């Protein structure tokens, strides 16, 4: 839809509000529901136990919890696109466009969805870091490049996702309690 709208400039295939909603939903779904869970979580859960020569991750129930939080989070994200006109605040959820005067319930659903996706990624990151640190094979002091990349990415996710959650919480208080973060 984005490419089709940009193919012929001046054509009114999508109105500006719908175009912004499509761009926002595309970006949020690709970042929080493909790049982080599939590329890091999916391949990590498949390849880390194989490369460390262990049967499973360190905390399999935490692993299952972080997986099963994602469908609910994705459902909330998809519902935020159906309710009202959708979230058209950009992939950064730019604060002037994400205020209550522009978006209502759809923005609240998107914020809740991003909170849940962040919780899922935080738990997965903890599981990856603990698994890679504690479950090395006895003779394997050197790790392959992929476990190192997952460990570094998990560390980066653990340092950035709480900041994102704090920003989303401040945005919620701006929207509902008239604060001015």
UniProtKB/TrEMBL annotation:
Pfam families: COX1 (PF00115). Component of the cytochrome c oxidase, the last enzyme in the mitochondrial electron transport chain which drives oxidative phosphorylation. The respiratory chain contains 3 multisubunit complexes succinate dehydrogenase (complex II, CII), ubiquinol-cytochrome c oxidoreductase (cytochrome b-c1 complex, complex III, CIII) and cytochrome c oxidase (complex IV, CIV), that cooperate to transfer electrons derived from NADH and succinate to molecular oxygen, creating an electrochemical gradient over the inner membrane that drives transmembrane transport and the ATP synthase. The chain crosses the membrane at residues 27-52, 64-82, 102-130, 142-165. It is found in: Mitochondrion inner membrane. Belongs to the heme-copper respiratory oxidase family. SUPFAM superfamilies: Cytochrome c oxidase subunit I-like (SSF81442). Its main location: mitochondrion. Its cofactor is heme. This is Cytochrome c oxidase subunit 1. It is a multi-pass membrane protein. One of its GO terms (biological process) is respiratory electron transport chain. It comes from Magallana gigas (Pacific oyster). Residues 1-181 form the Cytochrome oxidase subunit I profile domain. The keyword RNA-binding does not apply. InterPro entries: Cyt_c_oxase-like_su1_dom, Cyt_c_oxase-like_su1_sf, Cyt_C_Oxase_1. Its EC number is 7.1.1.9. It catalyses: 4 Fe(II)-[cytochrome c] + O2 + 8 H(+)(in) = 4 Fe(III)-[cytochrome c] + 2 H2O + 4 H(+)(out).
């Amino acid at each position: 839809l984005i490419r089709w709208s940009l193919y012929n400039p001046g054509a009114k295939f999508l109105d500006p509000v719908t175009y912004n909603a499509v761009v926002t939903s595309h970006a949020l779904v690709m970042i929080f529901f493909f790049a982080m869970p599939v590329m890091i979580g999916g391949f990590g859960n498949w390849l880390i136990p194989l490369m460390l020569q262990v049967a499973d991750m360190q905390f399999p129930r935490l692993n299952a919890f972080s997986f099963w939080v994602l469908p609910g989070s994705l459902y909330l994200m998809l519902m935020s696109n159906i309710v009202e006109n959708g979230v058209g605040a950009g992939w950064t959820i730019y604060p002037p466009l994400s205020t209550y005067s522009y978006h209502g319930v759809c923005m609240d659903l998107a914020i809740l969805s991003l909170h849940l996706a962040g919780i899922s990624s935080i738990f997965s990151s903890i599981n990856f870091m603990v698994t890679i640190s504690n479950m090395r094979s006895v003779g394997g002091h050197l790790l392959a490049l992929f476990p190192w990349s997952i460990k570094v990415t998990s560390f980066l996710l653990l340092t950035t996702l709480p900041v994102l959650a704090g920003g989303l919480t401040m945005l919620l208080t701006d929207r509902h309690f008239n604060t001015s973060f």
